[in-house]
Structure formats: C-alpha cells, structure tokens
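@channel sequence for tomorrow's demo:
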Amino acid sequence: MIRLLDVLFSLAGLLLGFPVLMVLFLVGLFDTGSPVFSQERVGRSKKPFTLVKFRTMRKDTASVASHLASGDAITPFGRFLRKTKLDELPQLWNVLKGEMSLVGPRPCLFSQEDLISEREKRGVLTARPGITGLAQVNDIDMSTPLLLAETDQKMLENLTVAAYFKYILMTVFGKGRGDRVPGK
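structure tokens (generated this afternoon):
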C-alpha cells in the first residue's frame, strides 16, 4: 500500500509541480550555475543509488554530510530552499523510480560508517530510504547516529498508512528543520 501511495504522490507531485520545479531550476541556474545536485547514497539493503536534490551549497563544497559542511557554503537561495524544504522536490524522481519512499529513514553517505552500523543492527537498512520521517519532524539529524538509528527503527516498527500521512503533512507544514549545517 505504501509503495502505491509513493508512486501516485510522486507522479502527481512531478506533474503538478513541474512549473515550480522549472522556476527553482532557473533561479538555481543563476545562483550556482548548476542547480541540481546528485550524490551517491546508501539505499535499501545498502544498495547505492544516486539521490537528486536542488543544490543549496556552492559547487566547490566538499561532498560530506551536512553537519560536517561549512555554513558559509550555503548560498542565499540555498537557505531559502532548505528552509522551505523545496530542495527535496527532485527526490520525487527517486521515489517514482523505487529507490526511495516519501517516508523512511533519510539516506546517508557511505562514509557515515557509524550510522550505517547502527542502522544495520536495527534492521533499518531493509527499508527504502525516505524524504521525511519521524527523525526529520523531530529535528534529529545525522550528527547523532545512535539516536537517529533508534528513531528510524521506532518509525519503521510503527509505520502505518496514517503515520505515513502524518509525517508528510508535518513536513509540508514546516515541522522539522532538516539537516543542520554548522553555524546556521
């Protein structure tokens, strides 16, 4: 049922949101010269996949977890995208392709070995990673791997269709700040 909802909502979001995606793409083109950011992430069963987002940091920023990046790397438009969570919209493509779900544990980098280890212990990596979830709406980010893995496990053990909608609506209406960047 969740996969069916993912397909329906991601397809609707991409089709209906196309004008917004194009405007954000064009503004991003002027902001950084390269509005789309892609990065290899840990997927379901540790299978790598390429996550796509709107770029919020300068192109020359090191490819590290957000909590390890410099706050000065975020562009003014990137701040807006992060605050509104619009930088996540291109991930609807990842959801449509089946690499992600709308709700699930946020996909981490392969270099985040502590988080991967904690998630493996708890069976979290058997699920599709998500755009949002319990940790995100409670401001728990990847800087606290143990707490994040525990929260992801709790979410997955209690994930119902009602909870799925709850996390999505909480995210849309501004709950949670996303991954923190030092100094911001």
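heads up for whoever presents: The first strand starts at residue 36 and ends at 42.
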